[in-house]
Specification:
Immunoglobulin-like, three-stranded antiparallel beta sheet, 1 helix, 18% helix, globular
Length: 107
């Protein structure tokens, strides 16, 4: 096997291993978000407002089964997620999530 071909095969194997061992967004979700966290959706954006007195970590679930990245939202803060788009991929709800490697969205 030539050196460039072997290097390409090793790179592909490493990428596949990363994809297989990476946790899915669904596995990181918890219970439904508190009622004091509300969302407003449009075709372009879904805005989430934390009206709670505590910081919350939430993700958005869509009709196609996909999940948005987890976001940490401070009290009275906002976060923006993808909207439903031209295919009608509407939000079905908000769920709590594990805030690993996320940034805080402020007020």
């Amino acid at each position: 096997m030539s050196r460039p071909l072997a290097l390409a095969a090793m790179s592909a194997a490493g990428l596949l291993t990363t994809l297989i061992t990476a946790p899915s967004a669904v596995a990181a979700t918890g219970s439904p978000a508190p009622e004091c966290v509300e969302y407003f959706q449009s075709w372009r954006y879904t805005d989430v407002h934390n009206r709670c007195g505590d910081t919350v970590s939430v993700t958005v679930e869509y009709t196609d089964g996909q999940w948005a990245p987890c976001r940490v939202i401070a009290p009275d803060g906002w976060a923006t997620f993808s909207g439903y788009g031209t295919n009608g991929n509407y939000v079905t709800g908000l769920r709590t999530c594990d805030p690993v490697l996320v940034t805080t969205e402020g007020a």
